[in-house]
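Hi Y.,

Following your request, here is the sequence exactly as I used it, all 358 residues.
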Amino acid sequence: MTKFAGLGGRLYRGETSLDFIGKRRRGYAFSGLLIIVSAIALSTQGLHLGIEFKGGSAFTVTKTGISLPDARAAVASTKIPGETIIQKLGTNKIRVQTAPLSVTQSNQVQDSLAAKFGVNADQIDTQIVGPSWGKEITRKALYGLFGFLIVVLLYLAMAFEPKMAIAAIVAVIHDVFITVGIYALVGFDVTPATVIGFLTILGYSLYDTVVVFDKVRENTRTITSGSRMTYSQAANLAVNQTLVRSFNTSLIALLPVASILFVGAGLLGAGTLKDLSLALFIGLATGTYSSIFIATPILAQLREREPAMQALAKRVSVRTSAPLESAAKAASAPTRAPSVATMEKRGPRNQPKKKKKR
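Below is the corresponding structure, written out as tokens. Let me know if you'd prefer a different format.
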């Protein structure tokens, strides 16, 4: 434990440094792997859209002791076409989702479930969503997502600089794509709560990125007037200085979300919570990761291409290599013994006279 004592202070002062910028290819490789897995999941399985987006019918039965096999048998007896999704919500609820049905087919499913579980048909909660309404919800969700990205891009470009805005948007898209891919991989339904979760994680992702970028701007405000460090070195110092803060903030935010996901949705069976909590959990984790391993390295790469930063890198290289060359020359220089002529010029070495004892 003594090794980690005062780690935050050492990172902030630069006494201890983790080279995130210099080893950015490792972060890029890991992100590339996650993106490939997400793309494969999206292309093979796709997203399981809820009835709010694709339209359909939902039947919710509430009774103690109900089971999924009984619900499947009841729905199968109606022989309705299309895909059917049957979920258990908690310990006493069953939800059946179907494709868009006619009034006659909807009544058949409702009557079959009522007969199977011994309840009145009026006690079954029925929700019918038309395809046109589902398309309208989908379009509004996409409008909200793209509108959010455009507003954030403009704000960051004005508040910081355009290249910081570009790096931040790349990190946000990285977070959203990986979250969507994991949704496709685990097969959770995409509902309006999921969209709310996506928009929320965009805010968290940008929060971590803005904190790091603010420190980068502070460290690089007058960097071109000297030759102490390059832009990449100053950006890496900023990441180290905000590392403990980003980790602590994300950990505190992840704890309640994890309790909702694993305790509320997993143990207690609150199915309505898992759509929102999964998006938040994945988004918070990837947002913290991308602000350190994606956004800041991309920003450093973009800025290092500028002529002023290239000239700065040359000055820093000359400054750091000069003491090393001097030390190398001093170490390689041969040590010469004094010549005879030099010894004669110096003359005999006078020894101190000894005092006579009285």
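The first strand starts at residue 48 and ends at 49.

Thanks again,
Q.
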